[in-house]
């Protein structure tokens, strides 16, 4: 498969791009933010996404979705990023759907059509500390017959307070750092014993802390096999990492485009500042970095779609590389905008804030560089 | 000589231990702990009030200014000892002040005796808080295209125009301000005025920043009357004063790159990330990045010490202030990037109590202005290239 | 279609397994293992000779050139499969050649049928080794100020002048060369000539580099007679050919940034530094720097794949070759810096047997030329800024 | 003490600078290199250094030296660096002298005057692997009464093949990684059982591998206390690290000066290349980095002279910072010179080679950054 979008994918991009730019541009984020909207995103926009089929991009046609792949999901995420659209897309349409695809038919029927129709929002409850360490699972699920009692806490669950469904990693045997003994559950947020408290983040999105106090679920809530959740978890993580890389790519491209425009307009000392060679070289370097990140992300997504066993490593490479490139993009954007870029009135700061949140989500560059090193045995 | 200094050190330490309230020896937690003084200042605590009072009485808010203007009259060596003892006891700065760090040196160099006697003692005691009016909407890094004009009306100037990025203009008592007194000349037609912010025609409007805070204002002048004896330096020679003062501003801002207030970066990172089995920070790549940063940070602390020492000795190239500004601000930005990385998702919180109202994220965003305010990093690099390295114009 | 490709993959793999000698599947240890071909080539081993012979016979030294010029006539998809299978078996390149990577594409685009038929098959079989005469002593990155002149003498040109940085000119059979055919015009007065290095008046002098090796020459032309049908493209339009070809050169050089020959950087580092108690590379800061580098290196490998795929599909912006060149060469320099750091004092050895005659240090120094030859990194950034980002001239 | 040179130190610099520039400029290195001089340095130049008093800069006046400090040694080293003078100064006049200053009077009398007179060259034999790990000492010194038998190997001993005296760290008790149980010895190279093989390095200097096979020394060869060599070793290392930082500073300043000249002369596209803003910004950044490194090194040397307990940490900071700054300096120098910088005929490549050797010597930036982290408890 050549490493560029095929004609159908290009067509999808041509549809997605104007739709999101019109429905949920940066001004949409600003108005939600100014209104202090407690959801942190718009259900109406989400419904619009559903009508376009986006929410079901990864859902197979049998369950009402488009039956497409991670490359296509990445196309949507890139536009979400470019427009800074506050959206539970990554957690729901990529993370939760990917988890549910590993579940039995009953569970798929229970949840997927709702996601496709835009009625269900999902949150990934995988982290237990402020730093991404999903391989450590302490939240306990004690089994009594066909019942599991879940107790423990998760944090940094994007839009978890609004989620209808939580995908929760829990320990059914062994201890915190063990490879085996992890089970994934599909947990309705309204279940008794679930407490969710939302936190506003720097980018004005919302993330939740989730506390489970003896929450009871039966076996039908188990995704995949009991004690065999690690493989599902790893797959879900690879998918959302690649997805977050796409969203960061969009954020970076959006910030860069604004900055290039600014460089071509703003005059100082009698010249357009974009004519200064020092800025030109930095802009050219940044462009190159972003192209590299784009290739790495597309590579990971193609591999995820092809079921290649290099996909896991490639997703870490993509997340790490996109983190570096997009971090550079927003820092250069703010610096090159000068004073005006520091004002809340101007949009460029929003890009910096969203990039930071996405860079942290599902592991930052440091985490993934270390992970890559461990994978490669050093 | 060395013995005298040792005795001074012992006395200084004893005095500080006796007079600095314990609360004023705790690390500052945020910008809110800074004492700025001025007519309308509300002290955050009795300790803060007392600490300023005793230091002002001893004239140690400005230890190296001459005694006749409210300074401590200390020698460079004594002033360094005082700084060291203050640092070693962890005493907070009793007074943060643009009057001290910026205007004061310019008044000492360019002021009339009357101007010095009027303004310097009030600055030293924290009675008058100053702000700086340089930048304008269309003159960011490019001060020569300044447009705020001051018309000569015989015994006074009539000032009209607008400034931006005026730090804390809404809380300041007086402003020092660049205005155009000759429309024909570029840099030669600028004058340096001092006036009360309560003068009729002066108004301010805070600018909300990406950090959510508003440390800067837009400041408007509408037929503001300024008596002529409130020009600092010669009319049309404000550029010289401004350049001199910018050097001091850069110094101050560059200071942020040094060992910052409160717990060190490694300490903060350890609190968040914990330790691995070998006792190392439990994120090997982050640890390495922090270690490499700390090399720079320690080295920059030495650089700051050297710069200050040479400044006092008069042996520093004037454009080295640009270097300090460049290095210090870039370092501070890097530091906040690492702090955010160390803090993980909790550092992203914006309003929660646990995050002290998003202190980490807001300080990180605030740091991005460091390399813009007071002349961008790009401007500093231009200055170094041209004035120190003597590289040719394009 | 996909089935055909799968069959092609199986057949290709089987053929390679049968025909590629085992010695030619071992990683290259140094530049000495490269096969350049040409009239005077001495094969390093029987395996090297045989591997070139079988690949040339199958026309797979140039798998995607048309069959009539000695190419394999493969589709882009088939050529990619061949590359993948070669990579997966670890087969060495049978032939390294500026004829293949640079001149060939230009001949295909600009050559007359006679020129193509004369030169391309010999390039494909490794019979004629080419070198490139672009740079001159006073025209490094600035080709427009080219001074080597070719006077029109009716049926031939008379060439006089000097080139520098001619790669392996002392071992090449023919040269492709930029000369000035119109002194008045700048870029418009340049032509692209092909001629035999044995033509009277051609002489070469190797340049010793900081690595101690001499891969480049100065090349002198003293009344060299070149028949007029040896111009590639139109007279005075050599600039177009050169630009087209530079894109291909950049591609080739950028390839060096990818996964390099031989053991990976982490493997080499492990050999030197060993492991700590937790099995990690026993130098935590170096390990982190290597890990961050490997992220870039893997990502760049994807970038290279994408670039090649888009190039074959004709959908790449021509200036993207500059980006590849920039990224690939900078990455390769970083890689050698890390290899030196990993190697410690032993990597500094220059002559010892243990260090293979200073292989590490010499390769490190050699890598520094990557971002200079074929257009400096600065030139590439200029090109990206102007041609892709459309930033204005100063 | 203010952090700049005092008038006497400035005077010393004014003497040292023209002397070394005239006696042993870069052309001197080139001629030694071209001649394949097996010593790797010139005894004549060394004698000249002795006549100027440089070799005894750290030796107290009682033993014939100048009785000055590490700041002054750094002044000499900076000029050695600037001129790329091949010299055993760092190992002999800083490393060995510092070690001998911790020894008893008899040993001082035995060696110091010879060093001062330029008759004795010394080598530091502290490393046992290709990577600097002086805290690991496996070379064994077995005690029998007042006799020690030394067996083991050291490497990367600068000019060790020409050294009259080797300063050797050996293990008298405990095992390789133990803090205690290390003893320092002053070993005449001609002692029976010592085998020295010299290697030419990239910068054309020479470093030796030293093999000891049952070498016998009596107690008078012990520097300081038996089993108590760690403190002496640490002090020696701090001193040579700061010294190497000074030498790197000189290398970097020399390379930068050549490059600035080149930027002001070389024309391309009709302009002096030093007028291009992108190069100006890089040159200005480099200048700033070098100033930081200079301050860090001077700070360490002042602290070493004052006996401050921060000196050890500061020496690591200086070595690490100077390594970064000078590495940048030589890379920028070669790149900005373009093709000509790649030729052996031009001098700039020598600066890159010498920087690399000095960067490695006594621990590179990675080593010292890690050391700093461990010192500061993370």
Provide a descriptive summary of the structure in words.
The complex is a heterotetramer, with two copies of chain A (378 residues) and two copies of chain B (394 residues). With 378 residues, chain A is of the alpha+beta class. Chain A has eleven helices and ten strands. In chain A, the strands form three sheets. A four-stranded mixed sheet of chain A has the order 1-4-5-8. In chain A, a hairpin with a 2-residue loop joins β9 and β10 (271-272). Chain A is globular. A four-stranded mixed sheet of chain B has the order 1-4-5-8. In chain B, strands 2-3-7-6 form a four-stranded antiparallel sheet, with no helix packed on it. Helices cover 43% and strands 14% of the residues of chain B. In chain B, α8 packs antiparallel against α9 (320-343). Chain B folds into three domains: 1-96, Acyl-CoA dehydrogenase/oxidase, N-terminal domain (Butyryl-Coa Dehydrogenase, subunit A, domain 1, Orthogonal Bundle), CATH 1.10.540.10; 130-238, Butyryl-CoA Dehydrogenase, subunit A, domain 2 (Beta Barrel), CATH 2.40.110; 256-388, Up-down Bundle (Butyryl-CoA Dehydrogenase, subunit A, domain 3). Chain B has helices spanning 2-19, 46-57, 76-89, 98-110, 113-124, 238-254, 265-273, 284-312, 320-343, 359-367, 377-388; strands at 130-133, 149-152, 156-167, 174-180, 190-196, 202-207, 216-227, 231-232. Chains in contact: A-B, A-C, A-D, B-C, B-D, C-D. At the A-C interface, α7, β10, α8, α9 and α11 of A face α3, α7, α8, α9 and α11 of C. Chains A, D: Its cofactor is FAD. Chains A, D: Residues 229-374 form the Acyl-CoA dehydrogenase/oxidase C-terminal domain. Chains A, D: Belongs to the acyl-CoA dehydrogenase family.
